[in-house]
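Can you give me the bound-state structure? Components:
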Amino acid sequence: MGKIEWAMWANEQALAAGLILLTGGIVGVAGQFRGWEFASYAIAAGFFVCLLEYPRSKRAKGTSVERTGQYCFTVCVKAFGPVTRNYYVRAFLHAALCVPGGFMLATVLGCVCLGIASLIYLAAAVRGEHWEPILPRKDTRKPVAESIKSPPQNPPPRPPPEIRRKQAKDVEGAAYDNPIAVTDD
Amino acid sequence: MAVSVRSWLANEAGKHFVLMLWLAANIWLFLDTYLLYSTGQQYHYLYQMLGLGLCISRASASVLNLNCSLVLLPMCRSLLTFIRGSHTMSTRRMRRLLNKSKSFHVACGVAICIFSAVHVSAHLMNVVNFSASFSEDFPALNLARYKGEDPKLIIFTTIPGVSGVLLVLILLLMFISSSQCIRVFNYEIFWYTHNLFIIFYIILMVHMVGGALKYQTNTEAHPPGCLRSSQSLQEPQADDLDQKQRCNEDAHFLPHYPQTWLWVSGPLCLYCVERLYRYIRSSHPVTIVTVIRHPCDVVELRMLKKNFRARPGQYILLNCPGVSSFENHPFTLTACPTENKETFGIHLRIVGDWTEHFAHLLLSQPRAALEILPVVHQRRYPTLYVDGPFGSPSEEVFNYDVSLCIAGGIGVTPFACVLDALIERWKSFRLQRLYFVWVCRELQSFYWFAELLCALHEKLWKENRPDYLNVKLYVTQDSLQSMSELRYRPLAARLQVGRPRWKLLFDEIGKSNKDKRVGVFCCGPKGISRTLHRLCNSVRSSGATFEFNKESFS
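Here's the bound-state model for the whole set.
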């Protein structure tokens, strides 16, 4: 089936689930429906999931495209080290977070989406994927050759006058070997 | 850069017009249904019970019906290819609109998602109201079984409720996995989740079974709002009121028949027929005739298939069960079958794991003994299935007087097919002049089609039309290099190092072709196509109108 990266799909799903949970929670609290405490929990949980899932992971092979402005989130998520690197942890975390959302109508959709994301993260973890931060590459430019920094002090060596006169009349006969080695840098 | 009105009209007017038409249809449908439910006599009692939620949910439902039927039509690729090919049925303007079919599909999809959200919210309000305003007067209207029934119970024990929940889940799965990132990097996930659409449509058609919303059938005999004679009136004006609002009978209610199938079944059948047709057409494996290796990781493949007809610019989908049973990869044809030769060819660049594995299967043949056998040695190529050909914007190159083709790297493939067709019969097309700009990172890439370019150049020179083809090659890597072979001298003379300067190029072309419509065809990275699009729309002193067409990937 080729090298599918389940983690990328799980990340998109979890981010969307976080947003849906957040929206559902806001609606639940604003309408003061029955069980609005679950809605307020959903706001907090949704916000947390969005923060955790916003920075995209670096792909194992190929170019990675990061989300706009994700650098500061990357730094925060990276700071937690192995807890956020491991996808098993994320799978179980999302599974645990989604459960209280199922008790209120406004947040049930976010709960199901987060549950699906948790399952996909489990699949990614089983396949051995893990989260890698996308950090800006420090471009190491090719070391500039020494000869470029210091321009030549002397003009190139010219042949003696007799040969120069010959050059004007007979080009082939005026060929000579350059006494100083000229390197092609 | 200021925008030129004529160019803008040529490039943007068509698609904006279609967009406006579609928006107008949606708005009209929404308002019409909203007014029907808020002012219609047959919905009077239902409206009293449910309020605004009824109107909004039904209005968004009719918009959803429209969009669910429209969303399938741009994906009937064989039908669109047929429309593109039949010049009697379509004008150039219509064919250019077909280039935007995928954008239209995305627009309908986004509309479906937005209006689903509206529809779901409104129905949630309805469910709460069904429960809270349980009607004792008209028990037939109720969906809840008793007053104050838990709304969650109502949702999960009725067909519309359960089907609605499933629909939302499938829609969310489809929507989330069709983001740009997943389409580019993990196309299979996008493809398999998107194929859940068939389950979506089946559930959609049974969504309204069960009749949650009912309308009143006897509005003449029982005008809504009339009072029963048994009820006592407060005011002593009973005699006047009796005449206007006499109830002859009780209100009768009937549920609506499901209407979605009327909207959706046509396009769904069309799409299923199209998929079946494509499956049957691609069920015969092709014969691989030649495999040629080119520099810079490009492999040319020549194939033979019975009854395969293609036009220059079209693309095919390859499926190789030896690599992966379910993956289909698109490749533009670089050589179409003609009367003289029946083979067709593609150039594929080895970039991802599928192409790597496929090229490995093609190129690594077991080395037989080196003696020359009297019988042709059968090479064991993998079985290959070809689906297509499908139309693309580059087919229009021949339908302009002047065309400008700009290719980036392996994006030259549609134009290579165009050049191939020109070599055979350049006189039979409307095209009078072709500007060909090819930008590559490495010099070696030009060798993919150097022979073809030089052959065409020489043929046109011999037939006294040296101005027909204008080639400009650009190599963007910094090192100074040139093509040293004698037979590629025409190309070496037209090779420049560095990026092309588009504005100068456009000015030059505009001045040489005043008052003409120049077709600009771009097949390359997004940066180039954005710049070119802007340049096509901008003001120019020379007076040529540039019509922008671009090939899009995925």
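A couple of observations. Chain B touches chain A at residues 121, 124, 151-152, 155, 168-169, 172-173, 176-177, 179, 181-182, 184-186, 188-189, 324, 326-327, 352-354 (CB under 8 Å). Confidence is low (pLDDT under 50) at residues 232-238 of chain B.
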